[in-house]
Design goal:
CATH architecture of the largest domain: 3-Layer(bba) Sandwich
Helix content: 25-40%
Number of helices: 13
Structural class: alpha+beta
Number of domains: 2
C-alpha cells in the first residue's frame, strides 16, 4: 500500500482519523495550521485542544452519549483513551483536564511511526486521498477550496463558550459541593445557590446586559444545543431555572431544601484550580460578564481565567454533499469528518473521525467500506447527516431519536428497558461491523 493518507486538521476528528488509519499500517501526513495560525477560539498548538466545555457528557451506557462513547472505546479510540487518562470529577459525566487531555493526544500522535505531523495551513485540495477535519472554525482558505468542489452554499451558526473561574476566587462560605441526586462522587460540583430575589435580580441584569453583535452581513443562527445563557434568558423568566440553573436534586446543606436556582461549577483540571460555569455559554461583552456573573452568590470576587466568547461554526450541507462512507459525492477521494460533516459535539466529531479514518484505510487498500448499521450510534449519526432534509439541515448531537429502531423496540413503553434494548442491539451490531473491516 504505497499511497499515503492526508489528514487536514488536528482536532479530535483529525487526530482520531489519523490514529485509526496509522494503526492499520497506513502512512499518514497530518496537517495542522496551529500554532502558526490560531483560530478565534484556540489558544495552543496542541492536537485535540478543547475550546468549549471540558465535558464529554454522560457515561451512562443507556444514554445516547454513553452508548456512543462505548462504541468508540470498543473500536480502540485514541480520544477515549486520552479522556480516561485525564478525567476530572463530574458526577455521572465524563469530564477531562483539558491540558492533560490534549497533551496525551499530541504525544501519542507525534510518537506514532506511521504519522508525520506538519505544521502549516493547507489552502488547496489535490487528487490524493484526504480527510478534511478542519472543524467548525475552518479557515477562510479551506472554506473557499471546499466551496469550489461542492458547488453549494456553506451554512453556519454562532456558537458560544463558557467562562472559566479561578478556584481561589470563589467564596467557599456561600457555595456547597454536591452532584445532582448524589451521582458520581456525590460532591463533584461546586454549587452557587440563589434565593428568588437573587435570581430575579440576576435574570433582569443578564437580559439587559450588552452583547456582542453579529456582523451586518452575517445572519445570526445560534445552535440550540449550545445556546448562550442570555438567549435562553430572553425566552422567559423561568427558562434558566428549567435549564442550566435547575436546582432539582441539589439540596443546600444549610437549609436541607433545593434552592430557588443554582449555578454549577465543574472542575477544569485534576488539581481543581479552575472551574467552568456549567451551561453558561455566552456572548456578553467581557465587562458585562464580570458585572453580571459577579452577582452570583460565591462569585462576587470571581477572577475570570477565560471569559465566554462567541464564534462562528462552519459545516457543510451534508445531505446534499456526503455519501454514507463520508466521501464527497462529487469527489470520492475526499472524506469529511468531525463537526464540518454536520455533527455537533466532541464525541460525535470523534466518531466521524474514526469512521473516516477506517474508511480511508479501506479505500487505500482497495476495499469497499461496509455501511455502518443505523441501529448503532455511529450509524445513527451518519444517517442524520446523509438522510436528513437538506433545506433546513442543522447539526445534531447524538440522541436516540436519530437511531433506526426495530418494530418491537418502537412499541416498548418502558423507557429504561427500551434504551437498554437499543444499547444492547447497537453494541452487538457495532462489534459485527468492526469484524467486517
Amino acid at each position: 500500500m504505497p499511497e499515503k493518507l492526508i489528514v487536514i486538521g488536528g482536532g479530535l476528528a483529525g487526530s482520531e482519523a489519523a490514529w485509526q488509519a496509522a494503526k492499520r499500517g497506513i502512512k499518514v501526513v497530518l496537517y495542522e495550521m496551529r500554532p502558526d495560525k490560531l483560530t478565534e477560539a484556540h489558544r495552543t498548538g496542541l492536537l485535540g485542544e478543547l475550546v468549549c466545555s471540558n465535558s464529554l457528557r454522560s457515561n451512562d451506557l443507556y444514554t445516547a452519549p454513553g452508548l456512543l462513547k462505548k462504541e468508540l472505546e470498543i473500536a480502540g479510540s485514541l480520544i477515549m483513551e486520552a479522556a480516561y487518562a485525564s478525567t476530572v470529577p463530574a458526577g455521572s459525566a465524563l469530564a477531562v483536564d483539558r491540558n492533560l487531555f490534549a497533551e496525551y493526544i499530541s504525544g501519542k500522535i507525534s510518537n506514532h511511526p506511521n504519522i508525520e505531523v506538519k505544521r502549516h495551513e493547507i489552502t488547496e485540495l489535490t487528487g490524493e486521498i484526504s480527510i478534511i477535519a478542519t472543524g467548525p472554525l475552518t479557515s477562510g482558505a479551506m472554506v473557499s477550496a471546499l466551496s469550489e468542489i461542492i458547488g453549494g452554499e456553506y451554512l453556519y451558526f454562532y456558537d458560544a463558550i463558557a467562562p472559566i473561574i479561578d478556584a481561589d476566587s470563589i467564596d467557599q462560605n456561600k457555595v456547597y459541593r454536591a452532584s445532582r441526586y448524589g451521582k458520581g462522587g456525590g460532591d463533584d460540583y461546586v454549587n452557587c445557590p440563589m434565593t428568588k430575589d437573587e435570581y430575579l435580580n440576576f435574570y433582569n441584569a443578564i437580559t439587559e446586559a450588552d452583547k456582542v453583535a453579529a456582523r451586518e452581513f452575517e445572519k445570526q443562527k445560534v445552535f440550540e444545543g449550545c445556546m448562550p445563557v442570555e438567549v435562553m434568558a430572553s425566552r422567559g423568566e423561568d427558562t434558566l431555572r428549567f435549564g442550566p440553573m435547575k436546582p432539582v436534586g441539589l439540596p443546600d446543606p444549610k437549609t436541607g431544601r433545593d434552592p430557588y436556582a443554582v449555578v454549577q461549577l465543574r472542575a477544569e483540571n485534576k488539581e481543581m484550580t479552575s472551574y467552568n460555569m456549567v451551561g453558561f455559554q455566552t456572548r456578553l461583552k467581557w465587562p458585562e460578564q464580570k458585572k453580571v456573573f459577579s452577582m452570583i452568590p460565591g462569585l462576587e470576587n470571581a477572577e475570570f481565567m477565560r471569559y465566554g466568547s462567541l464564534h462562528r461554526n462552519t459545516f457543510i450541507n451534508s445531505p446534499l454533499s456526503l455519501n454514507k462512507d463520508l466521501t464527497l459525492k462529487n469527489r470520492d477521494n475526499i472524506f469529511i469528518a468531525g463537526q464540518l460533516s454536520g455533527v455537533e459535539g466532541y464525541i460525535e466529531s470523534t466518531a466521524m473521525g474514526l469512521i473516516a479514518g477506517i474508511n480511508a484505510f479501506l479505500k487505500i487498500s482497495g476495499e469497499t467500506a461496509p455501511v455502518v448499521p443505523e441501529t448503532t450510534a455511529h450509524g445513527a449519526l451518519i444517517r442524520h447527516i446523509t438522510d436528513s432534509e437538506s433545506k433546513n439541515f442543522q447539526p445534531s448531537n447524538i440522541n436516540f431519536g436519530l437511531f433506526s429502531l426495530t418494530e418491537n423496540i418502537m412499541k416498548m413503553r418502558d423507557k429504561k428497558q427500551k434504551r437498554k434494548m437499543i444499547a444492547e442491539k447497537a453494541l452487538s451490531e457495532w462489534e459485527e461491523h468492526l469484524k467486517k473491516i
